[in-house]
Amino acid sequence: MRRVMAFVMRLMGRRTCEDVVAVLQDYFDGTLDPKVAEAIELHFRDCPDCRAFSKTYEETIRITGELAADDIPDEVRSRVRAALRDHIDAQSRVSIDTDGPDKLES
Fold first, then answer.
1. Main-chain dihedrals φ then ψ at residue 94, nearest 5 degrees
2. What would the DSSP string read from start to end of 15-56?
3. 3-state DSSP call for residue 58?
């Protein structure tokens, strides 16, 4: 059902939250096609969760952009890398069941 709704939203020119998150970096870099950027802005208008997430994302970019690589302690780098690896591993185990919620594969 979830895939059907995403398909319908795309046909209507609307974007799902997953669509927005997938291209958020390109949106802030200014490299998206203007029509896609406009659709994302419309989504932000109607979705307070994505609007809040994008503000947090933008603020994180601003803050981390002010750091020099040497300013980040090795322990923090290691923890961030480990968290990213864990997140990527978890995402690779997610299986989308079209008749129910997301499940982790065994």
1. -75, 130
2. --HHHHHHTHHHHHHT-S-HHHHHHHHHHHHH-HHHHHHHHH
3. helix
Report residue 2 as tokens.
């979830």
DSSP 8-state class, residue 61: H
Q: Residue 81 has which token pair?
A: 């890398």
How big is the chain, counted in residues? Answer: 106
From first to last of the 106 residues of the chain, give the pLDDT tens digit.
Answer: 445 445 545 655 566 888 888 888 888 889 888 888 888 898 899 899 999 999 998 998 888 787 676 777 888 888 988 888 887 777 766 544 444 454 444 4
Q: CA neighbours within 13 Å on the CB side: how many for 64? A: 10
